[in-house]
Design goal:
By secondary structure, the chain is an all-alpha fold. The chain is built from 4 helices and no strands.
Length: about 70
């Protein structure tokens, strides 16, 4: 329905706005892990950090996105 398309577009715009508020490394990890489906080891290698850091960055980024989207 047109209403659901509008709601989906509004949610997408809100998500993009919140993504822009994240630190660059958080944006990169979210993009690689969640949007492109890269594995933790692959992301770690590409960004020059260890896998533990990737997991921490991802968790903090997800928490920041959730908080932003709930504003």
């Amino acid at each position: 329905s047109p209403e659901s398309l509008i709601l989906e577009a509004e949610n997408h715009i809100a998500h993009l706005g919140c993504m822009k508020k994240l630190k660059d490394i958080q944006q990169q990890v979210i993009t690689l892990r969640m949007h492109e489906g890269s594995g933790g080891a692959e992301v770690a290698k590409e960004l020059g950090v260890n896998e533990g850091n990737v997991a921490t960055i991802l968790n903090r980024a997800k928490a920041a996105l959730k908080a932003c989207l709930l504003e």
